[in-house]
Amino acid sequence: MADPRFAMSLEASVPQGEPRVVEFQPPSAPLEPRFARDALEAVRPEDRAPKPLRKAKEPLPVADEPPESAISNKSVLAESTGTAGETQAPAAPPPAAPSQGGFIAGQHNNTSIPPDTSGAVGPTHVMTALNNDVMIHDRAGALVSKTTLNRFWQALGFAGGTFDPKLVYDPFAERFIFVTMQNAESSDSRILIAVSRTSDPRGLWFPAAIPVDAAAQGNVWLDYPSLGFCADKITVSVNLYTISGNGFAGATIYAFDKAAMVAGTPAAMQRFVLVSQGGTHAPAVTYDASLTTQYLVSRWSLRTAAVFELTGSPAANTAQLSPPRIVQTGGSGWDNQPSTSIAPQNGSTRTINAGDDRMQSACFRGGKLHAVHSIFLPQGGSTRSAVQWWVIDPANSSLANGRIDDTSGTFMYAFPSLSVNRNGDIMIGHAVFSSTTFAAGAYTLKLAGAAAAQPVVFAPGAATYFVTFGGARNRWGDYSVTQVDPQDDSTFWTCQEFVLSQDVWAVKWNQPAVSGGPATS
Hints:
Layout: E1 18-22, H1 33-41, H2 45-48, E2 71-74, E3 103-107, E4 118-121, E5 125-129, E6 133-138, E7 143-148, H3 149-155, E8 162-170, E9 175-182, E10 190-196, E11 205-211, H4 214-217, E12 220-229, E13 233-242, E14 248-257, H5 258-263, E15 267-274, E16 282-283, E17 285-286, E18 294-299, E19 304-311, E20 320-321, E21 325-328, E22 343-345, E23 348-352, E24 359-365, E25 368-377, E26 384-393, E27 398-404, E28 411-420, E29 426-434, E30 437-446, E31 456-459, E32 481-484, E33 492-501, E34 504-510
Parallel strand pairs: 2-21, 17-24
Antiparallel strand pairs: 1-15, 3-34, 4-5, 5-6, 6-7, 8-9, 9-10, 10-11, 12-13, 13-14, 14-15, 16-18, 18-19, 19-20, 19-21, 22-23, 24-25, 25-26, 26-27, 28-29, 29-30, 30-31, 32-33, 33-34
């Protein structure tokens, strides 16, 4: 039963940011050649063992629908992607859409499900971080370095128990920023964070660990990081779960002084422990270079989203978190998760888990906050998953939203991520499931001023997939990555999961042509 102390409330007070200082470990190079050679030529016995499955967690809380007076603005589904109804999808992708180039960056090795697909693209290299492995490729797809997730962090001074990697590239600081959780279901739960010393991820990294604080956060462990940045902040949000029973116990937002983090010097940090403001507050990857306001967005109710503003400076201990501003979607409401796994696949009656409706990805550009997540339709008895995106103008709370949704339920979409380029084009990377195809990776482009195009499958599945490690769920995701290219600020990259062969997941990067830009061949 949900703990009423953590029920979502617009009247609940927003916490003050508690000041802390993050001390870095001595810098190290966890992906230097000797680690790459070890990982490629010999796998240690401890790297062969599957990571233990955890007990099911309580679903993220859902707020009651707010009163009209509490809604800042409403969308009219101005970005509807179809022609025959408010949630009609574009034409479904063909059952056997061809691969469009790109390269496979990692795959299942019987140690981790799901992969938790994360990565980032820099000016010279592509870095991929999965629950099992961490890899660096050159931009043409040649493997440069490889190690396991555990061993990456072990080289930085933190051994074992790692999960939920998240990785971004900051083109203004010219750094990779890497966050991973450690020690699930334990009082020794920690956030691990590292910043590359240069734009080359093969070199030194500055690493640090932030342990759970039982006095401030409770007898909890830290789960599911969301990672973003703005001009002066690196921001991480996590969900809190009770060690006994995995009950939802709130969330925490960490705001780090970016300048100090990039320099590898002791960094001021402010921590905001949220009790009644829900979970998974996705901080935006901010491409307005001088903006010092960090925007965060989360799902609030089953019709609304909440926008938070983190202002001030953690370096000066003046950071403040605003109360949530509520915006309402156009179109129908949705379920936060289906009652069972619903994503179909060709050749099998065994379905795939499509996750839940937490906010997956956020990007701020051109004065607007863009965000994306999965939703489950119809409300009250969902039988299909869809992708919903938001475009919110914080200046006046105006917004538009759209959906990638096949109302027939033939094709389902989930685990999205998005980015926005200098032209205002939006790319959404996502998974595609259907009873006539195998689980695949795809993207949908929405060029500035135009309607969203038809989804494109760039990583078609090749077989059925059913891997549970003895658990109850055939898991996928839990997330994906989409990013604008730092070289031209125009083309995009996305990395998505697909089925490589029978019961084998893999992840693939793709760089489609956008507005005349280059495409990977």
